[in-house]
Amino acid sequence: MKKKKLCLLVIVCSLLLSGCWDANEPERFVYANGIGIDYKDGKIVVYIQIINLGSLAKAESGAGGSTSKADVGRAEGNTFEEAIFNLYHTSDRRIYLGHLSFVIFSEEAIKVGGIKHIADFLDRFRETRYRMYFFATKDSIKDIMLISPIENISLAFSKLSDPHDNYHQSSFIPPTDLRELIIALDEPPHQAQLPFLQISKRWTAQDGPKKELLIEKAAIISDNKLISILSKEIMNGARLTNKEFVRDSVYLSKRRNADISVLIYDKKVKIKPIIDKDGKVRF
């Protein structure tokens, strides 16, 4: 009798368990790899780059097929949230932001003070992580998102999604992730540095010139505004003071066609202030 009661209790309890009836399989999601924010005619314009993680898994296992294809969606609204939801309305499946890797701001979007609001939104959103990298540009965000990496590698390993690999080979302008951006904007001197993207054509494929991304400038953000875009000549010196510096080549001659260079790595920096006669401070 006791066994029958115990079995009945187990059956009743099992009926109360919800199980996985409301779970979503990974293949049913649409995965966002990057977001772009622009500002035109008083509207916030949002771009979302979608990649196929299934093809990424095939590439890692040695299967054939292209893994560098991406789709880019575009929508606009009075606010960032409105533009995002307008884009949701055109998607076949739920857009999952948990694998978001990068965010690109246009100059116009930064000038209207959008960067701190977007960073705060992404920080509060439950799906996103701190490992997403921020960039600035004056070129077309849509064109940037449609550029395929060289050698047809996956967009998950591109310069935007995984910038540290390229930076470890040539430490010119360090990447800035969400955590570092929040710290830089919230603590004195409230100044952040974003890599500045440019579309270049230094590579050539079998079918002709190939577009790729060039990072030789940096955008300086302070007080939620664009302060300046530092040129390559300025960043040549600034790179040597970066704590994340790994290695890079340094030219020793002032001549443009200098043929003497040194590979710098494992550096140590000592910053010494110098006060001029007029009271100005240099380092």
Structure, explained:
The protein is α/β, with parallel strands linked by helices and about 280 residues long. Helices cover about 25% and strands about 30% of the residues. The protein is built from nine helices and 13 strands. It has helices spanning about 1-15, 55-60, 80-90, 105-110, 115-125, 140-145, 165-170, 180-185, 230-240, and strands spanning about 30-40, 45-50, 70-75, 95, 100-105, 135, 190-205, 210-220, 225-230, 245-250, 260-265, 275, 280. Strands 1, 2, 3, 4, 5, 6, 7, 8 and 9 form a nine-stranded mixed sheet that branches. A two-stranded antiparallel ribbon has the order 10-11. A two-stranded antiparallel ribbon has the order 12-13. A hairpin with a 2-residue loop joins β8 (about 210-220) and β9 (about 225-230). α5 packs across α8. About 25% of the residues are buried.
**Low-pLDDT sequence parts:** none
Helix content: 25-40%
**Number of E strands:** 13
Rg measurement, Å? 24 Å
Strand content: 25-35%
Helix- and strand-based class? alpha/beta
Sheet having the most strands: 9 strands, mixed
